[in-house]
Amino acid sequence: VEAAPGAPRAQGQLVVGELSAPAAVDTTGIVFMQSENQIAYYAGARWSDRSPRMIASLLVETLAGTGSFPAVIGPGTSARMDQALVGDIRSFSAYRPSDAGIGEGGTKVRVELFVRLLRARDRTILASRTFSAEASSAGGMEGVVAAYDQALDVVLTDIAAWTLEQSLAAGEGS
After folding, report:
1. In 3-state terms, what secondary structure has residue 31?
2. Dihedral sign for Cα atoms in the order 37, 142, 47, 77
3. Higher pLDDT, 12 or 153
4. Cβ neighbours of residue 160 under 8 Å, at least 6 residues apart?
């Protein structure tokens, strides 16, 4: 997603913080919720990094790819920043709805992130919002990973558009 020529651009630099997550999600394991209170992990399947760090990196890529910010930097960077985007992973898991029946293709993935846009100099919250998406798996581990990718892409794209909108509304970094 790139900004169209002449599209509004934020003036301030943005840092994306590592997202907080429950211990069950703060792992490289790919989560499968067997029930609301029972968590398992797909055997032999791992993310390339812990989920919070991986999602923050993808969010930096998504925001930078829009061309709407002069600079987007990731967690742990000590560069000057005007705004910070921080948040929580509320859901990052596969599950099987109770009405799915038997067979492949019944698994769904839910991604839900709660994010806050902060003014960096005093950490004042400028805006906050929950973003969520679900995707259905075509079956097998490849299908589950594709569903994670699809749901996460929707959430990250929505966050990028919202972040620009909120940044412009706040007039920060000008």
Report:
1. strand
2. negative
3. 153
4. 1, 59, 62, 63, 66, 68
Say if CB 88 and CB 76 are below 8 A apart: no
Tokens at 103, concatenated: 């067979």
Q: Are 50 and 27 contacting, i.e. CB atoms less than 8 angstroms apart?
A: yes
Q: Compute the average pLDDT of residues 86-115.
A: 86
Q: Can you tell me the mean pLDDT for 146-158?
A: 97
Nearest to 133 by CA among 150, 145, 117: 150
Q: Tokens 């599209």 correspond to what residue?
A: 7
pLDDT for 38-95, tens place per residue? 999 999 999 999 999 999 999 999 999 999 999 999 987 777 789 999 999 999 999 9
pTM: 0.90
Q: How far apart are CA 62 and CA 93, in angstroms?
A: 21
For 134, which DSSP code? E
Q: Write phi, then psi, for 58 (nearest 5 degrees).
A: -65, -35
Q: Is 101 exposed, middle or buried (0-12, 13-18, 19+ CB in 10 A)?
A: exposed
The residue behind tokens 């007039």 is 171
